[in-house]
Amino acid sequence: MMVSAENLRERLGSLASGFVEQLKHQATDSLRNYIMILAVLSVPAFFFTRYFVAFALMVATLILSLIVNSYDANNLGLELATFSTVMMGLVFPPEVGAALGFIYISLQIFSGSNPGIYMLWVVPSMAVAGYLIGNFAYLGPVWAGIYASVILQSFFVFMTFLTSRGRLPKFIQYVVFNLTFNFFLFKTFAEPLMRTVGGT
User: What is the pTM of this model?
Assistant: First the structure.
C-alpha cells in the first residue's frame, strides 16, 4: 500500500513531536540529575580557558533561546548553537566538538522551541558539523564559520523542501535572517574568541 508524502510528513512530524514530549517529560522528572551533571561538567571551566568558554557558550545559547522564545521571535534566526558549535569544533578534538554541537543544539531546542520534524536532521547535522569543522581550520575561524552556516542552512532548506514544502517560504525567511546574524557573529567575535582560547 502506497503512503502519500503528506501522510509520511504527518507520521514523521508526529514521531518527532512524541519524541520531544517524551524527552521533556523525562527532563522534568529528573531535573535534579541534569543540574548535578551540569555542575560536574562545569568544574573544568574554572581551571581551563577552553572549557570556561565552552561552558559560557552553553549558558549564552540557553539564555538567548529563552529570550527568543519568550518574545515569540523564532522567525528572526537568532541562535548561538551554530556559532558555538563551529568555534568549539575548531579548538577541541572532533569527538568533543561533536558532543558540544549536540549539547548546544539540544539546549536551544529544549529551552522552549518546538522543532517538530526538524529535529530529526538538525540535531545530527550540528553534531556532524562539530566533528568535521576542524578539517576546515585552514580557512580561519571567520570563513570556516560562514561556510559552515551556509552549508548547514542549505541542507536544512533541502530537507524542508522534501518534508514540509508548505513551510518553505517562511523557513527561507528564517534562513536569510539566520545567515545574516551568523555572518555578523563570525565577523565580529570569531577571531577575538579564538585568540582567547588559544586556537588556530
Answer: 0.77
